[in-house]
Design brief:
Length: about 300
């Protein structure tokens, strides 16, 4: 294993063709740290992720400009703490001689620097820490680092909350049958190798239909029947969506709800005791209210799957 301040510009393609793509370990992982307790949890979580042969594990610290001026001997602020963190990673991965551990120290805007690094090395996943959810729950602040990272990075982000770190055992993936949600499921399968069962949820948005029925003073039986029809349709569609993955032997549990999507996702995660909640974010959309609502309220780790289209 070697530690290097440089990073490779070569990148393996995300989610290559073939049904076995859900079983391959990660090849490029970036962990952001500010040396806080939540960053320690993020680093501990990243070290539990399945890493593929010849993978790169990069720890990055971005010092704000006022604190990032050259210190004694020309060292940047945070250099000693970063080297200590990387040394700890090397000890943890001492049996993985095929894994290259890298350290990157920048100064400036954390989002811009991390985004440039992730693009340059073809990162598949960026891992960040987040404080515990406090009550009453509030929306993420506009200047929240987590919010900015999810909006602007352009790659998948795993947001880790402080909790005992163990291998994921109860993942929940929210899908809407889009190509993006298919990628979210595939990435989750890679993060949670067998035999962990994966709950796959689709929330049918029935709010407008039910509101229209109530405005028409329709009897309760009518909109309850309509809700049941929507659930049955969603269950059939979800079964078709999951058919290719069942052929790989993975245990997938179908979950269907009706109502407001974010509320349904959070309620299902709470009821299932999920330790990982995964959802997709469009590559073209920088602001997704559903994603940010889930990030603000979820009490477990949140995986936001996002992949930019290949450069033309």
């Amino acid at each position: 294993m070697k530690s290097s301040p440089l990073f490779s510009k070569s990148a393996l393609p995300m989610l290559p063709p073939g049904l076995q793509r859900g079983q391959r370990g990660l090849s490029r992982v970036v962990v952001g740290t500010d040396f806080s307790l939540r960053s320690e949890f993020a680093l501990a979580r990243a070290l539990r992720l399945p890493l593929g042969h010849g993978s790169i594990f990069c720890v990055v610290h971005v010092a704000p400009l006022p604190d990032g001026e050259a210190g004694p001997g020309g060292a940047l602020s945070g250099e000693r703490c970063l080297r200590k963190a990387v040394a700890s990673v090397c000890r943890r991965l001492r049996n993985r001689v095929d894994v290259e551990v890298q350290e990157v120290l920048h100064k400036g805007d954390p989002v811009e620097a991390t985004s440039a690094l992730a693009r340059a090395m073809g990162a598949e996943l960026v891992v960040l820490g987040r404080p515990h959810v406090s009550y009453p729950v509030r929306a993420l602040a506009e200047d929240s680092t987590v919010r900015s990272m999810v909006r602007r990075l352009g790659v998948s982000v795993l947001v880790v909350v402080p909790h005992p770190v163990r291998a994921y055992g109860r993942p929940l993936v929210a899908v809407d049958f889009s190509r993006e949600s298919r990628r979210a499921l595939e990435l989750t399968l890679r993060l949670c190798p067998s035999p962990a069962p994966v709950n796959v949820l689709h929330v049918a948005d029935t709010l407008e239909e039910e509101a229209a029925l109530r405005r028409d003073h329709a009897p309760a039986e009518r909109w309850l029947r309509r809700r049941q029809e929507r659930e049955d349709q969603a269950r059939v569609a979800l079964g078709r969506f999951l058919a290719p993955y069942r052929e790989t032997g993975r245990e997938l549990e179908v979950r269907v709800r009706c109502g407001e999507p974010a509320e349904g996702i959070l309620a299902e995660a709470m009821e299932q005791g999920s330790d990982l909640l995964a959802l997709a974010m469009s590559a073209a959309e920088a602001r997704t209210p559903l994603t940010e609502q889930v990030l603000a309220h979820a009490s477990c780790d949140v995986l936001v799957s996002r992949h930019l289209p290949p450069a033309s």
